[in-house]
Amino acid sequence: SGKVGQAQGYINDVYGMLDSLGLKFYSENRMLNIVLNDKLKGLLPGQLECNMGDVSLDFLSDLDVITVFANLLDNALEAGEGMEGFWVKLRGERIQDFTVVRVWNRCREGYVPGQSGKKGHEGLGLENVGQAVRKYHGEMHVECGDGVFTVTIMFPGP
Question: What angle is formed at CA 84 by the lines to CA 71 and CA 52, rounded to 5 degrees?
């Protein structure tokens, strides 16, 4: 609407507020920032690479943002517990008419689709992520190999 200066002032205010609270500004999505700040706070410098760029996830409900990112990050962080050289990466980008989000991390081998490696868990986290993604006509692809676990999610454009 031509109010670039006013918008930049608002963004600077948000950055200032997040800094004063010790929080980071990862994306334009409010709920995603809350989830990322909560889940990633225990990582050491060098263990995280997060570039959500200018990707808008506003088409996702807050509940689905939580379902997708909290499950993926919980899985990644649990896979890295006690692992030397652990890291996790998040990347979001717009490729042609698609929004693509990738979360990948170092892991131990042994992933079996539909099963949890955690005692007392039923392995429903990734299934819940898949259900949330499909609700928006998206697709989810999971890979595990060479010590890296990768989840790629692709949503079609509006």
Answer: 40
